[in-house]
What we know:
The complex is a heterodimer.
Chain A: H1 3-18, H2 21-42, E1 49-55, H3 60-74, E2 79-84, H4 87-95, E3 101-105, H5 109-114, E4 122-125, H6 130-148, H7 173-204, H8 206-211, H9 217-247, H10 255-280, H11 287-301, H12 315-323, H13 325-337, H14 343-367
Parallel strand pairs in A: 1-2, 1-3
Antiparallel strand pairs in A: 3-4
Chain B: H1 3-6, E1 11-20, E2 23-33, E3 38-42, H2 49-56, E4 64-69, E5 72-73, H3 78-83, E6 85-88, H4 100-110, H5 115-128, H6 144-155, E7 162-166, H7 174-191, E8 194-199, H8 202-208, E9 211-216, E10 219-224, H9 226-232, H10 242-250, H11 260-270
Parallel strand pairs in B: 3-8, 3-9, 6-7, 7-8
Antiparallel strand pairs in B: 1-2, 1-4, 4-5, 9-10
Amino acid sequence: MSTQRIFAIIEREMRKFMRSPALVLISLVLPLMQLLVLGNSFGGKIVGARVAVVDSDRGPEARRVWEALQSVEYNAKTFQPIPYASEKEATKDVRAGRIQGVVIIPPEYSRRVYSNNRPELGLELDNTDAFTSSAIVQALSGMVITLNQPAVQSRLAGQITLQQVELYPYVPYLQYMLPGAIALAMFVSVMIGGGMAYIDDKSRGVHEGYLVTPITRFELVLSMNVAGTLKASAGGLSLMVFGSLLAGVGAAFQPLRLLSLLLLIVCSSFAFMTMMSCIVSRMDNPLLPRAIFGVLNTLLYFPSGAVYPVQALPSWLRAITYVDPFTYVVDGLRGLLLRGATLQAAFTDIVCLAGFGVLMLAANTFLFKRTL
Amino acid sequence: MRPFQEEPAVIRVEHATKRFGEFTAVNDISLTVAPSETFGLLGPNGAGKSSLIRMITTVLPLTSGRITVCGEDVSLNPDRARLSIGVVPQALTSDTELTVEENLDIYAKLYGVNRNVRRRAISGLLEMVGLAERRTATVGTLSGGLRRRVEIARGLVHSPKILFLDEPTTGLDPVSRVDVWEMLQQIQRERHVTIFLTTHYMEEADELCDRIAIVDQGRLITLDTPQNLKSSIPGATPNTSLNDVFAYYTGRGLREGGGLDQELAKNGAGRH
Lengths: 372, 272
């Protein structure tokens, strides 16, 4: 094996990389945008939904319901109650999308409360929007519990309460998204600097130029993967720095943790790059990697736990997460960045990623054709 | 027997055949090239020139037949064969973001040329192709003609015995084309390198080559010196051109499907 030849290819790739700053920046734009847009739009609480209230009772207990609804309006701000004259009108407005739900206080409501005759409040929801409707349900359930509490509490508290202990300060969704965004930055770098650059070189005949030199198959495969790993590491590291500053994750900047993060990022980049090399190694059409980018992104990024917990996935999707390098990258980064864990916690992820990379490198060497 | 064939051959092609599925790109071609000769493979686009040159330069496996380069079988000992050849591919493949010098340096490293030799070799080559002044210019800033010179210099960084050029002047304007011709003649004179080129321009073959092999549809039609080829056809006059020779042997003109004018029009539009 000739290190001179390996370094020659790496040198070429890195020089090209350094001289196309626009390309480098573009590979950071997508993950940064995702972090900012998704991080700020999903994590936020639902505020200011509009809920119609049809009061057919107008009794004193209906008054209490009104007060409770207004307290939600002023405190949690989940929704704003709007008085409606009839249920029919309210339902029409739900269908038109003007309001998100209808609370119905039926006739005789107050009388049923006083006579303990199963009083009921009605709720109609626009459940085409699961997020808003579940937020409304949550707010109203809380309200109903309050309404049920007797005016005079018994002196011995016999009810069971859940005492919640949160180990970490509140983690906003923006921070929850950060590991995924860093992983995505590496993936996009690999896609552009690995996959597309490879096929581009192939179609331009640059590879044919290499093939007439005495470079061996393994030297060529290794050098291209090392170069791709370096580029992706640069992308991941930049996003980690920008992202941690944006999301306010100070843990990233502790020297020891920074070293662990660096190790994780390099291993992740290696896993991504070798995987990409395997995928594109027999491709010739420059349009193909662009086309498969969206597919791979959806297939590997979304189920990885980067945007939504893995525990919420159906079993067939969970099967993907076991072989998806994204899962390990996100898990390792989340441990180091958000849980303040040490290298030990991310060690399994690092070993899995490195092992996956070595396997893929072997496969890539096998798949790569030394002749045209 | 012609004198060229009595000398030891640096390239020996024996019954080389290349098939892509049903299509036969190179059909049982045999030829030899003598040391320091400039050898031309002339034929229209799609004649199998590129396939043959790729087989000789070890990047395309033969379907059948045998090829040796400087005594090394390209199928059995490709790496040894690779060290004695330099290749200037048809497409411009130098990296536009890199400087002239960097482009050459990377290739010299790929050929295992050590540092001191590398520096001297590259300086000498840049001097020869007239790019010494532009050594630190990025290749992207050079014209097509100058880029072609970079690629020619790149093919010579490891001082090969044979230089292969696949359509070296395709896509160049007439001035740059003559420029490349002169450069190749100079390389031949100064370095005694064997030059093997393909072309579909008969004037190029006529100007540069000691011997010309005319190929069409994968077959070797005829092989001789330009002079002998021209006088070989019935009713030859001093004005007989290689185009006439080609037409005589194949029954059609060389310019059909890829002549000079079409090529210029195409590249005029595509150049940046």
